[in-house]
Amino acid sequence: MIQIRPATREDIPALGRLGALLLQVHYGFDQARFLKPGAHSEEGYGWFLGTQTEDKDAVVLVAEDDGRVVGYVWGTLEPLSWKELRGPAGFIQDVVVDESARGQGIGARLVEAAIKALEEKGAPRVMLWTADANASAQRLFARLGFRKTMIEMTRERGDGGKG
Questions:
Q1: What is the tally of structural domains in the chain?
Q2: What number is the average pLDDT over the span 119-131?
Q3: Which residue, of 54, 85, 88, 152, is most buried by count of CB atoms within 10 Å of its CB?
Q4: Where are the beta strands (DSSP E) in the chain?
Q5: CB count in 10 Å sphere of residue 91
Q6: Separation CA 31–CA 53 (nearest Å)
């Protein structure tokens, strides 16, 4: 049975493993845009998410199945942003489910739990970004009530407008 719970320091290795998986997937979508996975991606991502478990403005939740962490979601409270032309918001930074555990609704449960936690912290809205190539994630987010509001476009130096 899947349990959604706050992440603990003991979850850091699993968070690192799943974060590195997220990094690999995104790099596969667009090698120019996303960070290249490295030899220490798991340790680095795990360390970073561990710092977020102690941040009062962050939420890190895990999905646990029979003692094994099979997914996580990380969200933050973000202040008003003139740069982004938006008011304060909760922001879901990451959501990932291990490939072996997909198709069970775990991603939806993680996102819903993060929304609830961010709203309890005062977020008047919750936002997220998703990779353009990640159609399955976009379908999930649409089912959960998210709507498209912005589209990121990237041009690498030297492209000369040829994309």
A1: 1
A2: 97
A3: 88
A4: 2-6, 58-65, 68-78, 89-97, 126-128
A5: 19
A6: 29
Q: Looking at the domain assignment, is residue 27 inside a domain?
A: yes
The pTM is what? 0.94
d(CA 150, CA 152): 7
Residue 2's nearest CA partner among 54, 58, 67 is 67
For 79, the domain range is 2-143
Residue 154 lies in a domain: no
Amino acid at 127: M
pLDDT in tens, 5-47: 999 999 999 999 999 999 999 999 999 999 999 999 999 999 9
Reduce the DSSP state of residue 11 to 3 states and report it. Answer: helix
Q: List residues bridging with 4 in a β-sheet.
A: 63
CATH classification at residue 93: 3.40.630.30
Reported as half-sphere exposure (CB side, CA atoms, 13 A), residue 75 has a value of: 28
